[in-house]
Amino acid sequence: MTTTPKCPECRSAITYPTGQSLMCAECGHEWNPDEVAAEEDGLVVKDANGNVLKDGDDVVMIKDLQVKGAPKALKAGTKVRGIKLVDGDHNIDCRIDGFGAMALKSEFVKKA
């Protein structure tokens, strides 16, 4: 018999899997065990859709962004490969092909 982790809300041991998430039979709380593990590790960065990002992920821009000092804007749909997560307001460091090194906010990207 496999054991499931305790509920992060009420600490009950009566939990069961529901597809990709887990659910507590006592309080009804539903959670993704990967997100809970990431939150316990420290830095948690989520994209515009609420997906947890990690170092090395590929993301896609969801909005045209003007860049100070640049002749053109970053267009929606631009794919960014191999991101690095950092603390701060602009929480993604990356390199964009044809543009160079950039710092982005996670709210303007989605996981590819």
Overall description:
There is one protein chain. This protein is mainly beta and 112 residues long. The chain folds into two domains: 1-42, N-terminal domain of TfIIb; 45-111, SH3 type barrels. 8% of the residues lie in helices and 30% in strands. It contains one helix and eleven strands. The strands form four sheets. A three-stranded antiparallel beta sheet has the order 1-2-3. Strands 7-6-11 form a three-stranded antiparallel beta sheet, with no helix packed on it. Strands 8-9-10 form a three-stranded antiparallel beta sheet, with no helix packed on it. β8 (84-85) and β9 form a beta hairpin. The longest helix is centred in the first third of the chain and has 9 residues, at 33-41. The relative contact order is 0.17.
Provide a count of the helices: 1
Shape type: elongated
Structural class assignment: mainly beta
Task: Tell me the CATH superfamily of the largest domain.
Answer: SH3 Domains
Helical amount: under 10%
The low-confidence parts are none
Counting DSSP E segments of at least 2 residues, the number of strands comes to 11
Work out the radius of gyration: 18 Å
Architecture of the largest domain, CATH level 2?
Roll
Which fold name is given in CATH as the topology of the largest domain?
SH3 type barrels
Question: Tags for this entry?
Answer:
112 residues; mainly beta; N-terminal domain of TfIIb; SH3 type barrels; three-stranded antiparallel sheet
Entry summary:
The protein is mainly β and 112 residues long. Helix content is 8%, strand content 30%. It has two domains: 1-42, N-terminal domain of TfIIb, CATH 2.20.25.10; 45-111, SH3 type barrels, CATH 2.30.30.40.
